[in-house]
Every structure is written in C-alpha cells, then in structure tokens.
Write a structure and sequence with these properties.
single chain; about 400 residues; alpha/beta; Aspartate Aminotransferase, domain 1; Aspartate Aminotransferase, domain 2; four-stranded mixed sheet; 13 strands
C-alpha cells in the first residue's frame, strides 16, 4: 500500500449524503413533485428552501473585500469572537475563569481537535450507539477503539451504562473520553433534563479520582431547543468539576446562524485546573495550525457584529424556526403515535428517529420508502426523519404512509 500502514481504507460510507445522492438522482429524472427530502440536517422553510437568517447574512454581505480576505488575528481566532463565543454559548452559567476558548472550522472541527488533543492512537473513545456517524469516522481516522454506550433505558438517558463505560476506560487506560450530544440529540431529538445532568456530573466527579476524564459535549443544536430560557441550565454544574474532569463544549455556527458553508464553530474548554486548561488549548492551537491554519475571519467579524448590534433581531428571527420545529415535530409524533409507528423519545431539535428491533427490518423499510420517493436516513436501528427540512404540508400524513409500507414488509 502507498498510504501509511495505519490508514483506515474501509469505504467512506455516509448514510446522509448517500441518501441525498439518491434523492438528487430521482428529482433530476422525475422532477421534485411527489418527492420528499428528509435527509440533510439543515433548516428549510415551508417552501422547502434553505433558511439563511437575514439577521446574520444581511450584514455579512456588507463586509469589505479586505475583511473577507484577511487572516484572523491568530490560530485560536479573533479575541472578540472568543469572548462572544463564551458569553453566548454559556449564557453566564459558567465562571469565565474556568473557560478557555478556541475558534474552529465548524462544529466538526471542534469535535475533531477535542478528540485528538486528549487521546492517543490505539486508545478507547466512548460514543453513543445512536449518534451522528461522523463521530465514528473521526475516531477510526485517529486510530481509536470505540466503546459504544446504549442511549436509552426505559426511554430515559442511560446514565448507568455511560458511567460503567467510563469506569472501564479509566481502569483500562487511565483516562476516558465521553461524547454526549445534548441538548437536541442527533438523531433522536432527546434532551436530558437537569436531574439527568446532575446525576451524570456527580457520577463523573466521583470517577475522576481514578484518572482524567474529558466530557465532549456537542451542543450543535442548542439554539433550537424549545425552551430557550432553560437550555443552558445544566452548565451551572460545570463550575464544580473535579480537577481531573474537564468539559469540551463544542459549538457550531453552522447550526446557530444557519451558515453551514461558512465553516465556523469553536471549543469552550471548561475545568478547575488552570494548567490542564492551558495544556488543552495549546494542543488545540497546534492542531488548528496543522489542519486549517486560520479560522474564518469574516464569519467571526459578522458573528461579533450580530451579537453587539442585532442580537434581538437574531433571537426573534430564530424563534420563528424554533416554533416551526415545534409545530412539525408535534404533528409528526402525534401521527406516529396514532398509527403505532415507534420512535425514540423526542424533546427538541431537528430530527425524529423511527425505532427498529434490528437493522434488517430498517433496511427493508428504507428500500420501500425510496421506491415511494420518501428519502430519510439510516441510523443504527432507526430511520432519521429530518423534520427541519420537510415542509409541514409534506409531514402531514407521512407517518401513515411509512406505517403502511412497514406493514407490507
């Protein structure tokens, strides 16, 4: 082989983009009428068009050419952007003295550099069984072994399994990296309540006496939770972490500002051990320099302007889509329940996922849906329905259509 001996040469299969390709091939041949696109996790309006928030993009188009062209102030990002990143995504719940920030190329960049800054090749990472499949792709690319935890027990977050996996990792390798995608988990739409978060953090604090723990909290969808008054409450718990426990809060401006192609995000590293925080940020800076050199200057400038001059407009415009997600999710879930179509527990966010006992059953229904021009995405023992991108008129009756296909299998 020509590439490095440790390279993962298994086929790169992305169920989302492969299903998108099926949809595009269909409409190229047959037209859009009658085809349902429930694939990509991007907000679309009731006409099926991609949402690009005016409160963000109107000003972006007014930046100078030099602002688009210029490098950022440093590898970690512009200082004012980093301050606004912390203030917006923690909402005053976390002591600033416990935080260090770094800008990244999207939420994917934030997750990627958090992983590789903490684990060595050959070590184990703990990932939810039902999850965004890029966690697995990144882990295998970095040469990690994956220990999967089960997301749910009696339709609640399976804290017991999580803590058991963390304890096993600590005994095995002296450290543990745990991924939690919350709130508005992709793909289930589950959000942990404050009691679940309290139990989790208490458990991790107790285990941290055995070794270092990094809790990678992917909060990509936090700005589209139904209850915007309490979607940061769990972060108060991050002020009282064991010295061996740190949180990497991974954020995505792709989702928050509907700026998917601009590629901007960040990591807010939280902990009580300042030398550990400094080590993490230094390691992350070197990763940034290695992978993309410099974050997106114009996108950072625009986010700062929006926070300083149009925050209320942004909140108001964003709320319209939070309300739309609530309408769509309630309609679809009510109709799933009415026809007996099982789904994972949903509370917030872009997706509702249908639940199956095995992947063979899932695959048969997926194939049947494609034949009826219904494009939704495979996940482990599930089919993810992107309510974020399906107009309400198309969602109405979808559960019944899918249930009829399921019964015909």
């Amino acid at each position: 082989m020509f590439v490095k001996s440790s390279a993962d040469l298994s086929p790169l299969i992305d169920n989302v983009f492969s299903t998108v390709a099926l949809y595009k091939a269909d409409i190229a041949q047959n037209g859009k009428a009658g085809a349902l696109n429930g694939t990509i996790g991007s907000l679309c309006d009731e006409n099926g068009d991609l949402v690009a928030l005016d409160s963000y993009f109107d000003h972006y188009s007014q930046l100078s050419h030099r602002q688009y062209a210029a490098y950022a102030a440093g590898f970690a990002g512009n200082p004012d952007y980093l301050d606004h990143l912390r203030s917006w995504f923690t909402q005053g719940k976390v002591d600033p003295e416990h935080c260090r920030m770094i800008a990244t190329m999207g939420g994917s960049g934030a997750i990627s550099i958090s992983m590789q800054s903490f684990l060595d090749r050959g070590q184990t990472i703990i990932i939810p069984r039902l999850s965004w499949e890029s966690y697995e792709t990144m882990s295998l690319t970095y040469g990690y072994t994956i220990d999967w935890y089960e997301n749910f027990k009696d339709d609640h977050f399976n804290i017991d399994d999580v803590l058991q996996k963390v304890e096993a990792s600590l005994h095995q390798q002296g450290r543990a990296l745990l991924i939690i995608n919350d709130p508005a988990h992709n793909p289930s739409g589950y959000s942990m309540d404050i009691q679940e978060w309290t139990t989790l953090i208490n458990g991790l604090n107790q285990l941290a006496s055995l070794g270092n723990i990094l809790l990678l909290n992917d909060v990509a969808y936090i700005d589209y939770c139904t209850d915007q008054n309490h979607n940061h409450d769990q972060m108060c718990l991050f002020n009282d972490l064991h010295p061996n426990l740190m949180v990497a809060l991974c954020v995505s401006l792709s989702k928050t500002a509907t700026s998917y192609g601009l590629r901007l995000g960040g990591v807010i590293v939280i902990g009580n051990q300042s030398d550990y925080l400094d080590e993490m940020v230094l390691t992350m800076k070197k990763a940034c320099r290695t992978y993309w050199s410099n974050p997106n200057n114009s996108a950072m400038i625009n986010f700062v302007w929006m926070m300083d001059h149009n925050q209320n407009g942004f909140i108001h415009e964003k709320q319209q889509y939070i309300d739309l997600l609530k309408t769509r999710s309630q309609l679809f879930i009510d109709q799933c329940d009415a026809v007996g179509l099982d789904h994972y527990p949903y509370r917030d966010g872009f997706f509702v996922t249908l639940r199956f006992n095995d992947n063979d059953q899932r695959d048969r229904l997926f194939d049947a849906c494609v034949k009826q021009r219904i494009y939704i995405c495979k996940v482990d023992k599930g089919l993810r329905v992107a309510i974020c991108s399906i107009p309400t008129s198309q969602l109405d009756g979808l559960a019944k259509r899918i249930m009829e296909l399921k019964k015909s299998q």
